[in-house]
Amino acid sequence: MSSGQSPVEQYVETVAPRLGDEGFERSETTLDEQALTVFHDREVQPWKLALVDTVIVVGTADTPAEARAFSKAAFEQGLSLKSRFPRGLFGGVVVYPVIVTEAPLVNWVNSYSPRHWSSFEFPVVVAPEADSIHYNRETPTWGAVYYRGLRNQAERLFAP
Q1: Which residue(s) pair with 38 in the sheet?
Q2: Distance (Å, rounded) from C-alpha 10 to C-alpha 7?
Q3: What global pTM score does this model have?
Q4: pLDDT along the chain (160 residues), means of 10
Q5: Which domain of life is it from (predicted)?
Q6: Which residues contact 149 (CB under 8 A, 6 or more apart)?
Q7: Using CA atoms, how far apart are residues 46 and 153, in angstroms rounded to an integer?
Q8: At what angle are helices 7-21 and 144-158 packed, to 10 degrees?
Q9: Which residues are CB-contacts of 120 (< 8 A; sequence separation ≥ 6)?
């Protein structure tokens, strides 16, 4: 990795091979003047009776307000990439807004738990200097059956 790379670029270069091995396709986009890397995978998940799109949007934020705005925008980006099947009727989407930052966002991510119809917005904060990831570890009643899998996938895919 080049020392001229930003922490986000360094992180993307670290996880890109892992995500590629998992079947994710990589693309680039811009959101609110921030260059973002997007990874997308679509697969049939028979036990969910659905075609599930998993979308990972990697960017940065320095404050809870910025993190919330980024997470919401990443979720909208994920919805724009999902299959034509309606959510809840053979279609689903999981969006991981991945925020690479050294800013103190642990309290924010521990308390942010958005709810969406037949879809998930599961933000992850990556602190590269500390070599750690953080996400909300609570299990809401409405999606309890899925949250263990979301947490396991986050650990497997996003650890620096």
Answers
A1: 27, 57
A2: 5
A3: 0.88
A4: 79 95 94 90 70 92 95 92 68 91 92 76 91 85 73 90
A5: Archaea
A6: none
A7: 18
A8: 110
A9: 93, 94, 95, 143, 146, 150
